[in-house]
Structures are given as structure tokens and as C-alpha cells.
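fwd from M.: "can u put these together and see what the complex looks like"

so here's what she sent:
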Amino acid sequence: QVQLVQSGGEVKKPGASVKVSCKASGYTFTRYGISWVRQAPGQGLEWMGGVTTYNGKATYAQKFQDLVTMTTDTATDTGYMELRSLRSDDTAVYYCARQSTYYYGSGRGNYLDFWGQGTLVTVSS
Amino acid sequence: DIQMTQSPSSLSTSIGNRVTITCRASQNIDTFLNWYQQKPGKVPKLLIYAASSLQSGVPSRFSGSGSGTDFTLTISSLQPEDFATYYCQHSSSSSFGPGTKVD
């Protein structure tokens, strides 16, 4: 069965970086992308970006463009998300999710059909 | 950037009722729209993709409709396990709507 298992919770100081991992199993890793979504306490879902696993190409939401790096390791079927220059408002649960793609007309859409369990990142001095 | 809005932001209802949640895009997005359900403390779950395609394993009481800028998620007869927050997502830009809490 498809599983995405994320690394454990982290506590970081403002200005530091955090790197969260997402180990995939139960499917062919390079046939699907990996997206990262975060959720601050009591808030909604926020898409941060995604990676096309077969070529490593990453696309980031504009808000995170200079702050985040998303990578994958196809040897271990693992995705990584590194967020830099952490602030207190980066405190959130960070999710990875498998990204499936469909095509309609001349366009392309993605949906997130399997999710990791979430990783709580706490930023506090 | 395409902005997604949802209405209502919350709604109170009862078991057995029909529930309708609306999502609106700031410009035409054809049928590039997904719906997710999230229960408190749980991981989001995909319900609908491509505006109206039911994800495998999701009960048939859930349905999605719409195209262009206006979309609807309908729960035909609310069950106890359906009390949750529902999010729409533009499937091309991946941006989420703000959510609708059903309680």
C-alpha cells in the first residue's frame, strides 16, 4: 500500500533552517511528484511547492521562492524540504503528499492523493 | 495569481441533511479543481479531483460539479463522520481555498 512516512518533529530557533524528509513506499516513486503543504495552528492549508521526481525539477509558491528547497533522492525514494531563515510564524505542521497529474484539453492539473503523517516544526527562541 | 474563495466559511447542520459548499476562482480554471476533507488533528483526504471525479474509496454521497469559476461540493445526506473542514484547491497552481467548516 502507498505510504509516505515523514521525519519527526523539530524545534528550531528563529533564523535557523529545518529539513524534513518524506520516505515513500508502495508505488513507483518516479511516476508521481511530491508536494509540500503546511498548516499553521488553527489555520488552513498552504501549498509550498512540489517536485517532479523523475527529473528533480521543483516549482515553488511565490511566497517561498527564496526560502525553500525541495529535492528528491530516487535511490531511496525520499523527498526533502528545507526551509531557511525560520520565523515564529513558520511554526506549523508540514505535510508531504503524492502528486498525481491529469490532463484536460491543453492544460494539466495535479491532485494530492496520499499524504504523509505530518511533521510539526516549532520555531521559538 | 488565481485566488480561491469558499462560502460559507462555516455552517451548522444536522445528520441526514444535504450540504452544499461553494468554491469560486478569480478567473476561469476550466475543471482544474480538487476538494479535500480534513478532520481535526488528521491528515487531509482527497475527495474529488478534476471538479467532479470521485476519488477511489470515497462514498458516493460526495459529489462535485462546476466549471469555469464556480464549483460546488455536495454531500447528499450528511453522516456523523462528515463533520470536518473542506478545502477546494486549484489543481494547476495548487493554491487552496480558505476552507469551510461543517459542524
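replying to her w this: The mean pLDDT of chain B is 97.
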